[in-house]
Automatic annotation (TrEMBL):
Keywords: Amino-acid biosynthesis, Metal-binding, Methionine biosynthesis, Methyltransferase, Transferase, Zinc
Function: Catalyzes the transfer of a methyl group from 5-methyltetrahydrofolate to homocysteine resulting in methionine formation.
Cofactor(s) this protein cannot do without: Zn(2+)
Protein's pathway: Amino-acid biosynthesis; L-methionine biosynthesis via de novo pathway; L-methionine from L-homocysteine (MetE route): step 1/1
Residues the entry annotates as binding L-methionine: I443, G444, S445, E496, D611
Record-listed Zn(2+) binding positions: H653, C655, E677, C736
Similarity section: Belongs to the vitamin-B12 independent methionine synthase family.
Name assigned to this protein: 5-methyltetrahydropteroyltriglutamate--homocysteine S-methyltransferase
Residue numbers binding 5-methyltetrahydropteroyltri-L-glutamate: K19, N126, R527, C528, W573
Keyword Amino-acid biosynthesis: yes
Domain annotation Cobalamin-independent methionine synthase MetE N-terminal: ranges: 4-317
Length: 765
């Protein structure tokens, strides 16, 4: 009999209960015991929920208070010394690793001041993990029995679970060596694997019938050294006596499949949503007993699974190896999708029927499994309903809008190109904008005060009128403009007070998007996001930002920068469609933005910024796929911005990433000025900066921190930059928008930045 399996369930809870409980604990409102109790209740709820939907194999140890990788660092005692010296409780040590800790001395306990571990994106998802830190001094040992405890907790509730562990090769591959250590993390595999064996033995003793061991790095380009390590590592792991299901996801295994051949594991899981070819690849290397777990229900998007296609794939696996050896599974953990569709009553029924969130995906797994075990007749109604939903979606007018498609068909290469090369048009812009050397600017948003949020909520709820809200926004803009004039910034912004979020704001103004009320997904720790969903062809019915930007420009003689979110960021921070290529969706968004850019220009806005912070994260996992992505991403930006006059200045902005990999792409955008987050990266951008051909503003202060750098520090940074960037190409700005900061530090930061800039101008005139 085929069995169904979920690889990991969203842990934050239907109404973000976990977020609320952990934040309450952090602020001292509830005790550690109360926090543990609510976590335990959530775990139990989630196991029951999955069982109730009919899932056979449900995961345990997929729960985490902060991040699953950090749980492994903690479990295996990869805890950097700096977190141990304060004698914190284990739970507080753990949270300190995740979010840092700063508190004054109290009751004879010393003051604590320790930053968090480094946070990194989980492959190409929007989930973030805390990068493990190891050194030759790391003493791997079992520091926590979380995996065993959670297994037993479920068992006590009469639920047999399959514990999830992140595999040792993936763990060390994602780790970094501590500053003091020169060890290559992967060299520590033998030591770490020995402790995994101990843990596996404990799980077997506790009654675990099999263990899911995740090795997602197998979807990456790997060195021979890493690939070779699989054999010895898994031979050692076999001593643990557990039936291991080696689990891969997020992409094609390609040649990496070879290292799985002959490994002493009970089975292999592959993602056939992202890479259908994984099915044949896996079938070709299994021995005659190994299980194949077929990841056919996507853990990465919110679309209903096409049952007809899915059944055909599963049947193929059954035909090859027999139903006893096939598992029907989610492609990856489903933590990347919202909890459930229940309560999303604002969604039009004709659109809601296209979606399946986590709970609904569990039901899908059960239906598919029944279909292959008992025959299609056993779930006829479900199969028919699913086919009808798919048909309705394919035929829906919103998924194929003629006007949008016609416009796409008429896009010409010239539309991606500014009329005049940078050198020449920049001279014209200088003439018209009359900016000093080292022009100063900000990235767009100013502090989103409580008053702004409260007033916006009132407007959304209808308790104030559109006129009252407009007047409020105008006053906010006026204040921010005056502030910038007073402290002496050169290129001003309107401050973005009208925006809830840089993607949602545009989604709401365009056709083709829908929004959930409760579709939260964990991004990192207790932070959750609620991505818009792209459901149809995207277009822009009318101006989105012109009113605010034109007003802001009308009250100052300084240049006002119009502020837009660029195509890839809108696409990446939404749930994209799965029925149309992402390149097509990016182009649709770009055409809408193009109209906006031209309308801004018409309204007298001479500087326009299109933020593309998500450009880096869209890079495919395999290098061979990069150029195709970069090509359409760059084209989308150029299509959005390429139609302006020579003396209209196009800016772009990048943050949250390591830019080395996309520096050519950034150059390819042909923007006149780019600002790049830089302050946290120890100015490591420096080496590439000198090669940049247009203007560049490396961020001068970290907007995530309330700390205000003194003037001297700003001056040092500017001096360092002047050495690598041509003097007439350097712009001065913060790392990113200021919306999460308060006014006092914003004022102090910007004042110091401007004083230092003036000093630098005097020295470099
Ligand atoms: C994450 S990038 C943010 C850019 C946006 N213009 C802001 O200033 O907030
Ligand atoms: Zn930013």
């Amino acid at each position: 009999m085929v069995q169904s399996a979920v690889l990991g369930f969203p842990r934050i809870g239907k109404n973000r209960e976990l977020k609320k409980a952990t934040e309450a604990y952090w602020s001292g409102k509830i005790s550690a015991e109360e926090l543990q109790t609510s976590a335990k209740n959530l775990r139990l709820d989630h196991w029951k929920l999955q069982k109730d939907q009919g899932v056979d194999i449900v995961p345990s140890n997929d729960f985490s208070f902060y991040d699953q990788i950090m749980d492994h660092s903690f479990t295996f005692n990869a805890i950097p010394e700096r977190y141990l010296k304060y004698d914190l409780s284990p739970l507080d040590t753990y949270f300190a690793m995740g979010r840092g800790m700063q508190r004054p001395a109290i009751d004879g306990k010393p003051a604590v001041d320790v930053p968090s571990q480094e946070m990194v994106k989980w492959f190409d998802s929007n989930y973030h993990f805390l990068r493990p830190e190891v050194s030759d001094k790391t003493e791997f040992k079992l520091n926590s029995t979380k995996a065993v405890d959670e297994f037993l907790e479920a068992k006590q509730a009469n639920i047999q679970t399959r514990p999830v562990l992140v595999g040792p090769v993936t763990f060390l591959y994602l780790a970094k060596a501590t500053k003091e250590s020169s060890v290559k993390p992967i060299e520590l595999l033998p030591k770490l694997t020995a402790v995994y064996v101990e843990l596996l033995k404990k799980l077997v003793e506790a009654g675990a019938e099999s263990v899911q061991i995740d090795e997602p790095i197998l979807a990456l380009d790997l060195s021979k050294e890493v690939l070779d390590s699989y054999k010895s590592t898994y031979e050692t792991l076999a001593q643990g006596g557990a039936k291991l299901i080696l689990t891969t996801y997020f992409g094609p295994l390609k040649d990496n499949i070879e290292v799985l051949k002959g490994l002493p594991v009970a089975g292999i899981h592959v993602d056939v949503c992202r890479a259908p070819e994984n099915l044949d690849a896996a079938l070709s290397i299994l021995d005659d007993k190994q299980i194949l777990s077929v990841g056919i229900v996507s853990g990465r998007n919110i679309w209903k699974t096409d049952f007809q296609k899915a059944v055909a794939v599963i049947e193929k696996a059954i035909a090859a190896i027999g139903s006893e050896r096939v598992i029907v599974a989610s492609s990856s953990s489903i933590l990347h999708i919202p909890h459930s569709l229940t309560g999303e009553d604002q969604l039009k029924p004709e659109i809601k029927r296209w979606f399946a969130f986590a709970v609904e995906k569990c039901a899908e797994l059960a239906i598919l499994t029944k279909a292959v075990n008992e025959g299609p007749a056993s779930v006829r109604e479900e199969l028919e309903a699913n086919a009808a939903d798919a048909k309705a979606r394919a035929e829906s007018p919103i998924t194929n809008v003629k006007a949008v498609r016609d416009r796409q068909a008429a896009v010409t290469p010239e539309m991606h190109t500014r009329a005049t090369p940078f050198e020449k048009r920049y001279a014209l812009q200088q003439e018209s904008l009359k900016l000093p050397q080292f022009p100063t600017t900000t990235i767009g948003s100013f502090p989103q005060t409580k008053e702004i949020r409260v007033t916006r909520n009132k407007y959304v709820k209808g308790s104030i009128s559109a006129e009252e809200y407009d007047a409020f926004i105008r006053k906010e803009i006026t204040d921010v403009v005056k502030f910038q004039e007073n402290i002496g910034l050169d290129v001003l912004v309107h401050g973005e007070p009208e925006r809830n979020d840089m993607v949602q704001y545009f989604g709401e103004k365009m056709e083709g998007f829908v929004f959930t009320v409760n579709g939260w997904v964990q991004s990192y720790g207790s932070r959750c996001v609620r991505p818009p969903i792209i459901v149809g062809d995207v277009s822009r019915p009318g101006p989105m930002t012109v009113k605010e930007s034109a007003f802001a420009q009308s009250i100052t003689s300084k240049p006002m920068k119009g502020m837009l979110t660029a195509p890839i960021t809108i696409l990446r921070w939404s749930f994209p469609r799965d029925d149309v290529e992402e390149s097509v969706q990016a182009q649709q968004i770009a055409l809408g933005l193009r109209d906006e850019v031209l309308d801004l220009e018409k309204a007298g806005v001479r500087v326009i910024q299109c933020d593309e912070p998500a450009l880096r994260e869209g890079l495919p996992l395999r290098r061979a796929d990069w150029s195709q992505y970069v090509d359409y991403a760059v084209k989308a930006f150029r299509l959005a911005t390429g139609g302006v006059k020579d003396d209209t200045q196009i800016h772009s902005h990048f943050c949250y990433s390591d830019f080395n990999d996309i520096f050519d792409a950034i150059q390819g955008l042909d923007a006149d000025v780019v600002s790049i987050e830089n302050s946290k990266s120890d100015m490591k951008l420096m080496s590439v900066l000198s090669n940049y051909k247009s203007c560049i503003g490396p961020g001068l202060f970290d907007i995530h921190s309330p700390r205000v750098p003194p003037v001297e520090e700003f001056k040092e940074r500017i001096d360092a930059l002047v050495k690598s960037v041509p003097k007439d190409r350097l712009w001065i700005n913060p790392d990113c928008g200021l919306k999460t900061r308060g006014w006092p530090e914003t004022t102090a930061d910007l004042e110091n930045m401007i004083v230092a800039t003036r000093m630098a101008r005097n020295e470099n005139a």
